[in-house]
Design a protein that fits this description.
Elements lengths: L2 E2 L9 E12 L2 E6 L1 E2 L13 E5 L2 E10 L5 E5 L8 E6 L1 H25 L3 E6 L4 E5 L6 H16 L4 E7 H5 L13 E7 L3 E4 L14 E9 L2 E8 H22 L6 H37 L5 E7 L4 H11 L6 E7 L5 E6 L7 H12 L2 E4 L3 E5 L7 H17 L5
Parallel strand pairs: 1-4, 16-17
Antiparallel strand pairs: 2-3, 2-8, 3-7, 5-6, 5-8, 6-7, 9-10, 10-15, 11-12, 12-13, 14-15, 17-18, 18-20, 19-20
Helix pairs in contact: 1-2, 5-6
Bound molecules: zinc ion.
Zinc ion binds next to helix 1.
């Protein structure tokens, strides 16, 4: 069993110890010390980083793990023989951040219980933010804000946070917020004065003021309830700073105040929707005019119209195909567009003997694209940059040739 120094002092960053065991696990060096201030990943809190110094040599600690038998494994960049005296130094900035996030979680979980009787069923500490999962059917924005306010009031009150060890039977009588599932021996209790009492093995603040602040972010439905994302302390400041910079950048684009950004976005979306509608109307008119011109130029029955539009997109040739084949006289339109993804559209005036879908499948097999459709209308796309104008025009003419000679008057 490793003596866990962090149980008694969350702000102990330097310590002396002796290597009692050295191991090789999955290609990584690991050492067990007789005592340690390094916190191992457990209870939702992430492990510490830092250094072990032995005989003037510094060895980085890359991961710390908790074993079921009570040993703490320190994964190290190099091997250290058993019996070596070492000096350990924990990365203090990282630990302080973890202490703030983890202690903030106690306060926030207690606030959700006190206000809405929503128990916390799990806690996750991430690189950027933390989450708790609340056992509840739903959480309104107003409820989240109330919990955030209460948690921050408790932080502002700077309530003492005490740690003590209590036998399991005694702990059961104390009305803890959470009892660990399996436990032997004494329970380690974390007591936030007159606010929260729970069992926990993590590292905590001395008083709630050290948490600094809690900022709640998104809440989303998950299988077991509602997941609430939050950040505490310096993370809350850096996150709020990033939010502000993002909002300021958006406001600058609109030449507006940051609080007017949502209204500006609403306006822009409405304008862009209106412009889209106007553009579609113009495209329809252009397709109508193009159809009239093509119909006036073409001869034969059925009239087979082949045309490649290098500067138009798929929507335009589709509209044009619809216009060309909407009349009574038998028309076959074999069209291609070059803007964006090169697209082929085949259409015929309904009631003719040809099958555009099959024709498209054959064309795509030859040209190396994907497509299909019904007997009267089919569409196919070629890989971007496929072929060139000459290739596509030649392909359209080759497809058109047998149709022109197989008409009723051929
Ligand atoms: Zn804790």
């Amino acid at each position: 069993m490793t003596d866990r120094l962090y149980y008694h002092d969350s702000f102990l960053y330097d310590f002396d110890a002796r290597v009692v065991e050295t191991l090789m696990l999955e290609g990584k060096h690991a050492v067990v010390l007789d005592r340690t201030a390094f916190y191992p990943t457990s209870g939702g809190q992430v492990h510490d980083l830092g250094m072990l110094t032995a005989e003037g040599q510094q060895i980085a600690i890359t991961e710390v793990a908790d074993e079921e038998d009570g040993r703490i494994l320190h994964f190290a960049a190099a091997s250290l023989p058993a019996g070596t005296q070492v000096h350990g130094s924990v990365d203090a900035a990282r630990r302080r951040d973890h202490v703030q996030q983890h202690s903030g979680q106690h306060v926030l979980s207690a606030a959700f219980i006190r206000l809405f009787n929503m128990p916390t069923v799990s806690f996750h500490m991430g690189e950027e933010s933390c989450t708790i999962d609340l056992e509840t059917a739903g959480l309104s924005a107003a409820q989240a804000q109330k919990a955030e306010l209460l948690a921050n009031e408790v932080i502002a009150e700077d309530r003492p946070v005490c740690t003590r060890f209590v036998p399991l039977d005694e702990a059961r009588q104390l009305g803890l917020r959470k009892l660990p599932p399996k436990q032997t021996g004494d329970l380690r209790l974390i007591d936030i004065s007159d606010f929260d009492l729970t069992a926990c093995g993590g590292t905590h603040v001395r008083a709630t003021g050290q948490i600094g602040s809690i900022l709640l972010r998104k809440a989303e439905k998950v299988k077991q309830g509602v997941r609430v994302e939050f950040v505490c302390g310096l993370r809350a400041v850096s996150t709020a700073r990033r939010d502000f910079m993002t909002l300021t950048e958006a406001a600058t684009l609109f030449s507006s105040h940051i609080y007017d950004v949502p209204e500006q976005i609403r306006k822009s979306l409405a304008e862009s929707k209106g412009a889209g509608k106007a553009q579609h109307k113009l495209l329809e008119e252009l397709a109508e005019l193009s159809a009239e011109r093509l119909l006036a130029q073409s001869v034969g029955s059925p009239q087979v119209i082949t045309q490649f539009f290098p500067d138009r997109d798929a929507l335009f040739v589709k509209l044009l195909a619809q216009k060309l084949t909407a009349g009574k006289s038998p028309i076959i339109a074999l069209l291609a567009s070059g803007a964006g993804q090169p697209t082929l559209v085949f259409a015929q005036t309904p009631g003719q003997k040809f099958n555009m879908g099959q024709l498209m499948k054959d064309a795509m097999a030859q040209l190396g694209g994907r497509g299909g459709g019904s007997a009267d209308m089919a569409q196919g796309g070629l890989p971007a940059g496929a072929g060139n104008i000459a290739d596509l025009e030649r392909a359209l003419h080759l497809i058109a040739a047998p149709l022109q000679t197989s008409g009723p008057h051929s």
